[in-house]
Amino acid sequence: MLFIFSLLWATLFAVLGYIVFYCSIRIEGGMKTFGQVLAVWLFILAVLLPLIGGYMSITGYSPIEQHMQQMGEMMGESMGNQE
After folding, report:
1. Which candidate among 7, 56, 66, 83 keeps its CA 20 to 30 Å from the CA of 45?
2. Positive or negative CA dihedral for 44, 7, 69, 61?
3. In three state form, how does the secondary structure of 5-23 look?
């Protein structure tokens, strides 16, 4: 589940990186260099996010899944008390 969320964020960062890179081509001076550096950082983040999300999913360390398990235990206990 965490891997899917990381893919969504990676897609967002890749699109933003492309937009920043495209806009930096049309600008002159120091802002052009800043825009290109920013675009490269966005592309690096777009690559790293799925790698980190995949690693966390494979190793079993997922805060989302742990939270869902805790919620399920709480719901199970409250449902058991009502019977």
Report:
1. 66
2. negative
3. HHHHHHHHHHHHHHHHHHH
